[in-house]
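Throughout our pipeline, every protein is held as a single compact record rather than as scattered files. The record that follows is passed on verbatim for readers who wish to inspect the format.
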Amino acid sequence: MRRATLPAGVRRGPAVTVNVDGTPRQAHLGETVAAALMADGGPAVRVTRGGEPRGIYCGMGVCFECLVVVDGVPNTRACMTWIRDGMDIRHMDGLAAAGLTKENDHDA
């Protein structure tokens, strides 16, 4: 875990457990899924259908680069979703996370 050092007098929220790609990880109430994933070790949160990694870009919900699957819901913006105890977070891999493939994606 790589979390920033907090200034004096500032405390993190209570620690909770979330599952990231099936592995239990520690996160804190009051942080976003994006912050928890960055602290967990990597900027990439998804792979495009063309195989390009994407990560946290704007951090304020404008760019849609930080899409993940949260509790089975694909295309969830990690930077706009608050951590909850017991969350299931999955990195998105192309269209598969949304139940699509290139064969049935009419916009491919």
In short: Confidence is low (pLDDT under 50) at residues 104-108.
